[in-house]
Amino acid sequence: xxxxxxxxxxxxxxxxxxxxxxxxxxxxxxxxxxxxxxxxxxxxxxxxxxxxxxxxxxxxxxxxxxxxxxxxxxxxxxxxxxxxxxxxxxxxxxxxxxxxxxxxxxxxxxxxxxxxxxxxxxxxxxxxxxxxxxxxxxxxxxxxxxxxxxxxxxxxxxxxxxxxxxxxxxxxxxxxxxxxxxxxxxxxxxxxxxxxxxxxxxxxxxxxxxxxxxxxxxxxxxxxxxxxxxxxxxxxxxxxxxxxxxxxxxxxxxxxxxxxxxxxxxxxxxxxxxxxxxxxxxxxxxxxxxxxxxxxxxxxxxxxxxxxxxxxxxxxxxxxxxxxxxxxxxxxxxxxxxxxxxxxxxxxxxxxxxxxxxxxxxxxxxxxxxxx
Length: 372
Known about the structure:
- By secondary structure, the protein is an alpha+beta fold.
- The protein is 19% helix and 38% strand.
- The strands form 4 sheets. Strands 4-3-2-1-9-8-7-6-5 form a 9-stranded antiparallel β-sheet. A 4-stranded antiparallel β-sheet has the order 10-14-12-11, with helices on one face.
- Helix 2 crosses helix 4 (213-227).
């Protein structure tokens, strides 16, 4: 009798999974009002082993598909979450199964969003995945402009938009730290203006395609050599560091195998809100060291591959100096934990304070940038 019951439950579960797939399977599209109209498409299909899987595409931003973290249908209530960007949709499936009226939430207040099931006649074309730059392509800029940033503008940005490589509000030390994958404390010597003068850089790669992180760093290194006349030599010094290690109960990370050579997505959605997509542990260590913490961060997890996750914490006054931001004292009613606790609870990782020998770059010479 117990065996019959088990098989009956399994059959019911399979029937429910098939019903969900039939009810939600396909492409759903709608338009968000986010300062401008943004068309979005959700693709949903049956997952291996039951359940549903899907991806979200922002058509007008030309972004690649972002995997959905969860999709549920309870009665007529549809819920979808996208942890890497901190996004969520909740809506009500219509009686005819042709639309879902609901709201989209990402960071701020919920925005109304109605999704309609696409047909061959109404479906929006999903952008082709961006083609990567060839592995043997020259990692140099065909053209690059360097301008002084707007005075007193807060924040800092490194990003790729289409084929343009952009930095905003970045010092020479920021560019060196990015290009050579080091913390600001690993840059020794140099002149005061390297830490104070801020620049916006716009560069167009010489080769077609989207550069990966290795190629992107190489392009910025060449820019520093050509336009800033940077010269340095390497040394090793023992410095205070934070080491990222796997926690006692193991990591809590979602593996991303969609684009093993692509760029990671690590863009803060606010102080203490870091959605990550397609990121390695070295990428996490890099952003923690360059933007958040006051010392180099090293990866000692031993974890290979790329992951999606969202890290949410309440920052304190010692953090985010790397972004040029002064963090106010934590509010008394803060609900998010501190950074070190968030690492353990949300990622299954831990940050250990220690000392370690690290590479340093000793500056021999650098000039203010040549004219465009």
